[in-house]
């Protein structure tokens, strides 16, 4: 009898969730694959609802109570968990952010801050959707929270909310009020909290769903009949940005060249043959005193010193670049690097030929400019240097900027990367021939403060 009752309860719960999925799909068809990505799993031990990216786990009593409040509440909970997965909240590595937060607030507060930020980001997206199937009156606390965050961040994704809340140095009590207001689901299953079969790869599956959603919204967004699709697309674009390992990226500028050093993998065949001929069975092995290696020798670093770029963040960027240049396994001992400062005109051009010179430059760094932003003078200057044969194998140029300026029309003969420092997560259009690398301003500030991730 008890088993029959449990079976009936489970069937009713699945019908509730399937009905919610169907209603959401009818109004937001671009979410079709995302809405169908969950399998429904009963879990009486869980107090509310939760997901690990594969299953949607539910407590039957809680789900039934939510349904009695109204279908809108079930729809919102379902969509809340879908947005968590679309924006990869369960798989974010936020150790660096929490380290920085723990310097400003108590450790317990820092841990709670990220969870609250994810819930606010999902709920803010839902509250922006003008559809009756998810619409409910917003509380005073919600309105105040959105208004306060909106003054600091244009895009309310989890990272942006985290940074904005951290600026206010919230106390634990305030975060608990926010958690209570925005709480919908249990996050204990995030980041592998539940064991999964090897065939289940939730992060990869949701990455694929997000990629397809971006394509569909860009192609057919105007037909989606949802005023919030533009906001969803904006956040998806932010999440889909390619992330680069800065050290590995600089290797794109490497050249193959001989360097004076013992090569244990090769030896002089003359000595080898001479030993065999002289002793019969005793070759003489002498390691080569030079070896061919692929390292970075020449490139240009351009720095946007206009009013829109923070001097402290520029110094943090150069400090990180300097730490990479000190690694002898990545760069030749003798280097040829030009560091060009430019706003609307070239303000300075410093040639660096060794680690010692780079260290001295860093110690006495003075930023010049603070005018408007025009990227063209830097490219003109590099062409002049090439004409004077200042470079023999220039592979690339790194331009550190916020991306708000006049780009050259013509593609240069070397690779160009615009290293974009951002706090607002807005999309910047650069010429098709250029590479975009986004740096998170808050992560740069963490680096500036000396906070690094050991892992």
TrEMBL record:
It comes from the Bacteria. Residues 300-438 form the VWA-like domain. This is Metallopeptidase. It comes from Blautia celeris. The lineage of its organism: Bacteria, Bacillati, Bacillota, Clostridia, Lachnospirales.
């Amino acid at each position: 009898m008890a088993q029959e009752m449990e079976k009936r309860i489970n069937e009713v719960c699945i019908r509730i969730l399937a009905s919610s999925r169907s209603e959401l799909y009818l109004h937001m068809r671009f979410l079709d694959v995302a809405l169908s990505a969950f399998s429904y799993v009963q879990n009486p031990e869980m107090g509310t609802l939760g997901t690990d990216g594969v299953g949607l786990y539910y407590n039957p009593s809680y789900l039934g109570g939510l349904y009695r409040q109204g279908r809108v509440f079930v729809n919102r909970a379902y969509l809340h968990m879908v947005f968590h997965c679309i924006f990869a909240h369960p798989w974010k590595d936020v150790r660096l952010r929490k380290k920085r937060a723990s310097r400003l607030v108590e450790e317990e507060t820092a841990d709670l801050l990220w969870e609250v930020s994810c819930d606010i980001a999902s709920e803010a997206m839902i509250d922006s959707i003008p559809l009756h199937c998810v619409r409910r009156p917003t509380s005073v606390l919600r309105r105040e929270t959105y208004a306060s965050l909106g003054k600091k961040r244009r895009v309310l994704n989890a990272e942006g909310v985290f940074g904005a809340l951290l600026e206010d140095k919230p106390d634990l009590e305030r975060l608990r009020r926010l958690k209570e207001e925005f709480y919908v689901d249990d996050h204990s299953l995030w980041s592998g909290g539940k064991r999964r079969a090897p065939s289940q790869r939730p992060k990869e599956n949701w990455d694929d769903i997000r990629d397809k959603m971006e394509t569909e919204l860009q192609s057919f967004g105007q037909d989606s009949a949802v005023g919030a699709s533009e906001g969803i697309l904006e956040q998806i674009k932010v999440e889909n940005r390619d992330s680069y390992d800065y050290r590995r990226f600089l290797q794109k500028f490497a050249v193959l060249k001989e360097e004076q050093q013992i090569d244990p993998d090769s030896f002089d065949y003359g000595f080898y043959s001479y030993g065999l001929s002289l002793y019969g069975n005793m070759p003489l092995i002498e390691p080569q005193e030079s070896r061919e290696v692929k390292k970075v020798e020449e490139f240009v670093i351009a720095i946007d010193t206009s009013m829109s770029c923070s001097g402290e963040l520029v110094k943090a960027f150069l400090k990180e670049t300097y730490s990479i240049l000190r690694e002898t396994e990545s760069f030749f001992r003798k280097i040829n690097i030009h560091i060009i400062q430019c706003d609307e005109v070239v303000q300075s051009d410093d040639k660096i030929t060794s680690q010692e010179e780079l260290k001295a430059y860093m110690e006495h760094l003075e930023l010049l400019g603070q005018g408007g932003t025009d990227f063209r003078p830097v490219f003109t200057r590099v062409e002049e240097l090439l004409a004077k044969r200042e470079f023999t194998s220039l592979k690339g140029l790194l331009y550190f900027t916020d991306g708000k300026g006049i780009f050259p029309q013509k593609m240069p003969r070397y690779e160009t990367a615009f290293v974009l420092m951002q706090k607002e997560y807005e999309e910047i259009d650069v010429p098709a021939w250029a590479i975009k690398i986004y740096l998170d301003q808050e992560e740069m500030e963490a680096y500036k403060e000396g906070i690094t991730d050991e892992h």
